[in-house]
Amino acid sequence: MKRILVTGGAGFIGANFVHHMIAHSDSEITVLDKMTYAANRQSLEGLDSKRVNVVVGDICDYVLVNELVPQHDAVVHFAAETHNDNSLHDPRSFVNANILGTFEILEAVRNHSVRLHHISTDEVYGDLELDDPQRFTESTPYKPSSPYSASKASSDLLVKAWVRSFGIEATLSNCSNNYGPYQHVEKFIPRQITNILAGQRTKLYGNGKNVRDWIHASDHSSAVKRILESGESGRTYLIGADGERNNLDVLCMILSLMGKDENEFERVADRPGHDLRYAIDSTVLRTELGWRPQYTNLEHGLEQTIAWYRENRSWWESAKAQTEERYRSQHVTDAVGVAR
Ligand code: NAD
Ligand code: TDX
């Protein structure tokens, strides 16, 4: 796996993956990224320019994708529209990037016989009750709830069909909620951290009982590297680090780590269709491929993440005002009409 094409490499997890591969392999990487609002060029600064090349472009661009794919040994496909709240207001961009974009990547890896690893999410499985003893496994049926998760589920199904019908060499992974450096301030954890750093109140959707299964982006990267090296074509691997917490607990942890009173938050309108709980059983990845997460203490991982946002204000400050403005304009069009 010497030459790797990383789609979406200027986004949160893609950038963490590029840093991980540069530090832990001798790969040469081409990033293909459209540089949407979610991308940040600064996330790739300081990397060896002999090993990392950035191409600004769209995965839906047939000509560009077919020019780049054959120059590589593998494609790791992160590029997507990723924010659930946005998918409720602009589903078209999710269908375009996540479904049609994945289709173009699939056709190119098929035409040029290049290995693919497709990055997906646990949200394709829908949600679990809070007291359900089950967690998601590789055989859980798909039951996505939002336009975002439905578009990711569609992209997964396309990949599986291209493996079965055309024999392409591809693996898939479905991972739980990531946190860590370089995450856009629209997402839950960075939104709360940067609200506190900017002197604003933190925002909790609904009653805060919704559970997410947190994993550090660096552990997601090491899992993807392991699958690229040893995964079996056609297989799906679930990636998770046993990090289930409800949103209220995570918010209280952030407030306390940042020296604030645990009551200093605002309850805002809930997300329509809000998934209740996600939980990943990553036994297959651990037993078959021997993967282990390094970040097993969420509080410690959050402490490091808070320090990163404190020390890298220039990375997030310009996106902050725009993001909060987008939240304000989105809730105006919501039926509930309460500030989010
Ligand atoms: P992100 O929104 O931070 O980054 C997405 C990147 O894709 C951006 O750099 C954007 O510019 C790029 N992009 C979007 N549309 C594009 C297009 N048409 N052509 C080229 N580039 C395009 O997302 P993320 O959180 O880093 O997620 C990356 C992948 O991981 C996604 O596929 C997502 O579904 C998956 N995932 C995310 C999480 C999570 O917790 N964030 C969990 C599991 C899986
Ligand atoms: O301000 C907020 N307050 C709040 O309570 C925000 C932005 C979110 N929330 C809640 C909603 C969710 O229950 O926090 C939880 C996490 O929200 P997000 O960060 O928006 O993530 P989620 O919707 O769970 O999806 C994420 O994980 C799976 C990523 O955005 C997806 O791309 C990934 O597939």
Describe the overall structure.
The chain has a domain at 3-184 and 215-242 and 277-294: Rossmann fold (3-Layer(aba) Sandwich). The chain has 340 residues and is α/β, with parallel strands linked by helices. The chain is 43% helix and 16% strand. The mean pLDDT is 97. β1 (3-7), α1 and β2 form a beta-alpha-beta unit. Residues 82-84, 121, 123, 177, 187-188, 191, 203-205, 210, 212, 247, 271 line the site of thymidine-5'-diphospho-beta-D-xylose. Nicotinamide-adenine-dinucleotide binds next to α1, β2, α4 and β5.
What is this entry, summarized?
The protein has helices at 12-24, 62-68, 84-89, 91-112, 147-166, 188-197, 217-230, 247-257, 283-289, 298-311, 313-333, and strands at 3-7, 28-33, 52-56, 74-77, 115-121, 170-175, 178-179, 202-205, 211-213, 215-216, 236-239, 244-246, 265-268. The protein is of the alpha/beta class. The protein has a domain at 3-184 and 215-242 and 277-294: Rossmann fold (3-Layer(aba) Sandwich), CATH 3.40.50.720.
CATH class of one domain: Alpha Beta
Bound molecules: nicotinamide-adenine-dinucleotide, thymidine-5'-diphospho-beta-D-xylose
Number of strands: 13
Category by helix and strand content: alpha/beta
Q: Helical element count?
A: 11
Task: Please state the average pLDDT score.
Answer: 97
Largest beta sheet, briefly? 7 strands, parallel
Strand content: 15-25%
Instruction: Report strand order across the widest sheet.
Output: 3-2-1-4-5-6-11
Low-confidence stretches: none
CATH architecture of one domain: 3-Layer(aba) Sandwich
The global form is: globular
